């Protein structure tokens, strides 16, 4: 082979490799631009037109829940004790009480939970500001808030659970947890917008715990523990639709008006008929009904005279549940597994063709 | 010409070297801590709590560890799907690194699961909850680990002279190669989708419907970077010639992917109207560090000459790896604020030692395998 020929050979070879590289580079640039354009459209699209958002789930028509009225709550914590009794939950002793509260043997004698935990499914917390003199005042006042599972219409915990341990009852809408199915991944704990499900980190065989609206009591036609013992009707049980109407009535009340406040079950069926009471409205209700619209609505609602963000409830949440976003992505990409199957077919074709070219493997 | 069996060679040499023994000691320390974790609960070994139910065992061992494991994914993609034969020498070490990355991510899940004895419920159809992104991730990762075992099997079969089975396996390997590209595409993007549901609890600097795209891009980027990083380290430590010509091509691809990531990140922030968060929003400092690492890593690759310098390549791969690590850490831990109440989380020393132990096990097994099995491409005398 002459020197001249060799160099031509080399040149033509390098030219083809350059053009192929050029082609590949353009292909990469082109697909990058297309991907960027597609991504921008997806993000910029309004929620209702966005393919990556699924429609929200409605509440079951006979969904049940609780209405908590912060202005009626006297902070007696009878509901906290009743919840523990009815659900067989152990006492929860804060670090500050450990010293004097050891009791006989291992068992503490005084239950003093300050926050929801794997031992406490329901807790009353207090807000105070300045002198703390006036009840239900944001300035120089105090107020109570009840914390428990809100039983969302479209719950994040149910959406994330990989093994169906967290489920939503089709009729009552109660969000149930089955520890025998649970793998303890704690994705429900991470995802709950209200910080409700809890795990016991100090137990080698810890369980996820949350309020299940005393489903065992309801099965016996008895009230959930908290609504059963509430002396003022601050915690009221009933169909969520009825409770929502009651909440609207209350938030429309004026200061100085006398109003009737029922107790137990708003319909007077579960747990038997109870007498309510007349009471003077002393503090102006906030118009915001907590749980009416938050994250697609919740079955447990709250009304208060103090803004809810002061009561440490998240108020920066959208009106659709977050599962509409994450399941939207998931259902778009994996609808009928068509896209993955198509991609697999393409990959398999290329891999089959190309492995033949390779001497090894 | 030499037969194919000699294309890959065990490196040979002593197994009980100092690095191996240090790794073994770290694994033993992790073992002692895990005994505590399994007898006394997660709280005895970790600072996990109900505000931060996921700590570094998820964020680092699984979410970042599996991105380290994307070496096999990107090299298989280049080599077998895009038919770029020149990447062939990188296949086996990459697949081995992936096998350990994913295998140990699976092991780390068992460390973190609160009710680990039920873990197999993930595989049983009657427990399946198809809306769960985690179910998809779990099934994909489990299947992919098996696929990696099959993809790596030729090295075993070659070593022990089981040629008949090896020939049979070679005929169907394309199925596993295709799965080995499909599955990481699915679950690496889903690792991003997993955090979409935490909503307002993740800072708007990171919370986006684009999370799956960003996680796929960082998986590919970290896959490339770990191949470069590992190749340079192997050349230095085992005194082998540098694989710079192949690596410089990978560098070009890293440049493309990293640039795409940066551009899309800013487009996403602008479109969502959150660009102002960069200046003084909560955790904005971490965003800046993430971007500085990413941009300096890619800027280093812009001059073509740098892509042929092993020092520059190594530095750039390190910066891009660090950027990918920080991005994932930002999404899973730093940018996350729990819903209600003041919660704090910083990993405990014990928790860190378990994570160190998982990575030490990975390194120890890698050292053992490359010395005893035909993983590395044989260095021919005319090259060396």
UniProtKB/TrEMBL annotation, chain B:
<keyword id="KW-1133">Transmembrane helix</keyword>
<dbReference type="InterPro" id="IPR051817">
    <property type="entry name" value="FDH_cytochrome_b556_subunit"/>
</dbReference>
<feature type="transmembrane region" description="Helical">
    <location>
        <begin position="133"/>
        <end position="157"/>
    </location>
</feature>
<dbReference type="GO" id="GO:0009061">
    <property type="term" value="P:anaerobic respiration"/>
</dbReference>
<dbReference type="GO" id="GO:0005886">
    <property type="term" value="C:plasma membrane"/>
</dbReference>
<feature type="transmembrane region" description="Helical">
    <location>
        <begin position="94"/>
        <end position="113"/>
    </location>
</feature>
<dbReference type="InterPro" id="IPR005614">
    <property type="entry name" value="NrfD-like"/>
</dbReference>
<keyword id="KW-1003">Cell membrane</keyword>
<keyword id="KW-0812">Transmembrane</keyword>
<protein>
    <submittedName>
        <fullName>Hydrogenase 2 cytochrome b type component</fullName>
    </submittedName>
</protein>
<feature type="transmembrane region" description="Helical">
    <location>
        <begin position="313"/>
        <end position="332"/>
    </location>
</feature>
<feature type="transmembrane region" description="Helical">
    <location>
        <begin position="169"/>
        <end position="186"/>
    </location>
</feature>
<dbReference type="Pfam" id="PF03916">
    <property type="entry name" value="NrfD"/>
</dbReference>
<feature type="transmembrane region" description="Helical">
    <location>
        <begin position="54"/>
        <end position="82"/>
    </location>
</feature>
<feature type="transmembrane region" description="Helical">
    <location>
        <begin position="12"/>
        <end position="34"/>
    </location>
</feature>
<keyword id="KW-0614">Plasmid</keyword>
<feature type="transmembrane region" description="Helical">
    <location>
        <begin position="250"/>
        <end position="271"/>
    </location>
</feature>
<feature type="transmembrane region" description="Helical">
    <location>
        <begin position="206"/>
        <end position="229"/>
    </location>
</feature>
<feature type="transmembrane region" description="Helical">
    <location>
        <begin position="352"/>
        <end position="370"/>
    </location>
</feature>
<keyword id="KW-0472">Membrane</keyword>
<feature type="transmembrane region" description="Helical">
    <location>
        <begin position="283"/>
        <end position="301"/>
    </location>
</feature>
<comment type="similarity">
    <text>Belongs to the NrfD family.</text>
</comment>
